[in-house]
Amino acid sequence: MTRKFPLLNRTRFRQNAVMARSTQRAGLLHNARVYLSGPMDFVASRAAEKRLGWRNRVGEFLERMGVTVFDPWFKPDVRGLHEYGREDEESVHRIRQRWTYARGKQGAQARAWCARQFWETLHIDLRMVDTSDFSISYCPTNIYSVGTPHEIIMATLQHKPVLFVSPPIRFPALHELREYLKNDPAGRALLERLEREVPVKENPTGIPSLWYIPLVGGENFFDGFGFAPYRQRFGWKEDIPLDAHERRRRPRRPLLPFLETLSHHLPRKWDRKLGKFVPDDDWLLWDLHPGKKRGKHLEGVRR
Predict the structure, then answer these.
(1) Over the stretch 122-139, which tens digit does the pLDDT of each residue have?
(2) pLDDT tens by residue, 203-254
(3) Domain residue ranges of the chain, discontinuous segments joined by +
(4) Residue 291 — very low, low, confident or very high, per pLDDT cuts 50/70/90?
(5) Distance CA 48, CA 40 (A)
(6) Which residue(s) pair with 268 in the sheet?
(7) Which residues are paired to 134 by β-bridges?
(8) For the whole model, what pTM was predicted?
(9) Which residues lie closer than 8 Å to 115 by C-beta, 6 or more apart?
(10) Residue 85's pLDDT band (cuts 50, 70, 90)
(11) What sign for the dihedral angle of Cα 13, 14, 19, 25?
(12) Backbone angles phi, psi at 108, to 5 degrees
């Protein structure tokens, strides 16, 4: 049965993206491919993330530039393999229900079944990373994720740029609860115990996990998306949680203006030895034209 999605959430491989491309002057990102990487499993609500998450807006923003957007919530069709790698709440629930630590044949069979079921999802997501020219990774430090680091490492091993968004993490409700319990010693002690067990760790300046800094490269980090200036242009009328988050703390280095500039000028990176910005040769965006049978070849020897 063919699934039907609301207009906002239909597959990122939309046919009407072609119309958007024809209405805008072709820029550097025209016909480029991007993969949108970020937590999906341990978010507060998978359904809300799929319907209202950051990928919807960033995907629409890039499609206006003629970019092909790979969104793991809405995986592309695979020729000859119907519904390959598709995941939903029911498929994830079945795997979790079947998972066991039991020993022996029965336990081994159950775990093998779980691994085989999720292999298609892992396979198609990593293939989308392979196929992309660059990735955008949303990595808040308060959400556990395994697939996202895997995808980031895959992209960097292939010398593909990873644009890394690490937003400030604060918990306003936690501060309100502390204030509410300030005259309740038992309640305050219980809250402190909960903070240690979870654990609840704020990151008010959005500093990324340190392992990512040398992996991704210093010029590819952003502390937010910067949706506010674009909401009227794109018709983003419905508030999403990230809107409130960015109102509380306006991003100092937002992603969307960077992408807008990227459509016209390739980024540069800082060379520590030379002490200056130099061209970033990770940004290899193919200049392919329909009808050409072969790529360009060397005409002479570079001296």
Answers:
(1) 999 999 999 999 999 999
(2) 999 999 999 999 999 999 999 999 999 999 999 999 998 999 999 999 999 9
(3) 7-168+203-279, 170-201
(4) low
(5) 10
(6) 279
(7) 34
(8) 0.84
(9) none
(10) confident
(11) negative
(12) -65, -40
| Tokens standing for residue 33 | 């491919």
Structure-token match 């800094």, residue found? 213
Distance CA 228, CA 144 (A): 27
Q: What are phi and psi of 4, to 5 degrees?
A: -115, 135
pLDDT at 213: 94
State the average pLDDT over residues 20-28. 58
Dig out the tokens for 219 from the structure. 């010029």
Residue 223 identity (one-letter amino acid)? D
